[in-house]
Specification:
The chain is an alpha/beta fold. Helix content is 34%, strand content 19%. The structure holds fe (ii) ion.
């Protein structure tokens, strides 16, 4: 019995440490990640990481001092004891919730949307530059994801239309120009008829010049369409706009354009909320039109609202697929008001599909169990 007690105590302490980490990471995902880059934000994020570590050690040390017992109060401090017990209880509940979700995902298997066929081709970037933590870092393990989507009632003039998507370059010191250009070339070799770019070009203004140099020659017969992401607004919305336009890309700043192919017309729209302004009406996307409608939105958080306009496909990035994922549990921090819901892949609401790309680069420059991607869609 004593041995079982010991094992149970160890499991409980381990669960509590992990649950506390998940809890704080979730709070960071929902309330901190989407705030503009600033010193206070960085300070809060460092504070959360420190707090996670300190609380984890505090739980371990107290358990060690009390023969593995987790729920031990502070003699003479009833309120503090109550707060501590409440925190431990919530941490355990979060651990159980995360574990049940992970088990359910395992049992359910990968999410399969009807009418969608996906092919993934590994295309790792051949580089001698070692990323940080090279044993686990998948920073340069690029994948080319090719997706065929059946659209009921698709205009015959749009049969076989191919659309390439590039997102979240985050060009910087580690995700350098060589890698970004290589990723862009992987998609361009597949010859997309239309190219979309869904934001987050760089993290710092000094890399803007190099990033747009990497995009030189990026052209497609039906045009290149872009929206800006949160980092583009933080780095400089006007400067990024100027460079997008110099590159002969069409900036879809809360507007839509019609594109023609084989006599058939379809709609490409772009939204930049909430980074430009939260609550912008999406009435430039006609909900009743039977035209094929493709919408670019850097963040997937706009999808529930966008779905009211009945787009066929919304293309997003922003989450980097969760970026740092743990075995079994998956992602920990996802910058979304919906937590981990829109981490990566396909989501459906009514007749609308959302695809969240894992993106090309990331910030900070580490990916675990989450390979970067460029994406090619083919409509049939
Ligand atoms: Fe991003």
């Amino acid at each position: 019995m004593a041995a079982l007690d010991t094992l149970w105590d160890v499991i409980l302490v381990f669960a509590c440490c992990l649950g506390s980490g998940f809890l704080l990471a979730n709070l960071q995902s929902r309330f901190i990640c989407n705030l503009p880059d600033s010193r206070p934000k960085v300070a809060v994020e460092i504070g959360i990481h420190l707090l996670t570590t300190v609380i984890g050690f505090f739980i371990l040390i107290r358990a060690a001092l009390h023969e593995g017992q987790l729920f031990v109060g502070f003699p003479g401090w009833p309120i503090l004891s109550l707060v501590w017990f409440a925190y431990l209880g919530v941490s355990l509940a979060v651990f159980v919730g995360f574990t049940l979700i992970a088990i359910a995902k395992r049992i359910r298997g990968p999410h399969q949307e009807p009418g969608i066929r996906t092919t993934v081709t590994p295309a790792p970037f051949p580089t001698r530059v070692q990323p940080p933590l090279p044993q686990v870092n998948q920073l340069f393990d690029l994948e080319v994801v090719e997706i065929e989507i059946e659209i009921p009632g698709l205009d015959p003039g749009l049969e076989g239309l191919t659309v390439g998507n590039l997102t979240d370059f985050h060009l910087g010191r580690v995700c350098n120009g060589g890698y970004v250009r290589y990723a862009v070339d992987q998609l361009m070799e597949r010859g997309p008829e239309l190219l979309t770019v869904t934001g987050d070009f760089v993290n710092y203004p000094i890399y803007l010049e190099e990033c747009f140099q990497c995009l030189e020659g990026c052209a497609a017969p039906l045009g290149v369409y872009a929206v800006r992401g949160n980092h583009d607004y933080w780095v400089g919305a006007e400067e990024t706009e100027r460079r997008i336009k110099n590159q002969e890309m069409v900036l879809l700043h809360d507007r839509a354009v019609e594109v023609e192919r084989n006599g058939a017309r379809f709609l490409v729209a772009g939204v930049e909320s909430p980074w430009n302004q939260a609550g912008v009406p999406f009435d430039f996307i006609p909900p009743d039109s039977n035209q094929l409608k493709i919408v670019l939105s850097h963040t997937p958080d706009e999808f529930p609202k966008l779905a009211r306009q009945n787009p066929h496909l919304v293309l997003s990035g922003h989450t980097h697929g969760g970026q740092i994922c743990l075995p079994f549990y998956g992602s920990v921090v996802v910058p979304s008001n919906y937590g981990r819901k829109y981490e990566r892949g396909f989501f459906r609401q009514g007749n609308s599909l959302l695809y969240v790309s894992k993106g090309i680069g990331c910030h900070p420059a580490i990916r675990t169990l989450c390979k970067p991607e460029v994406t090619l869609f083919r409509f049939v």
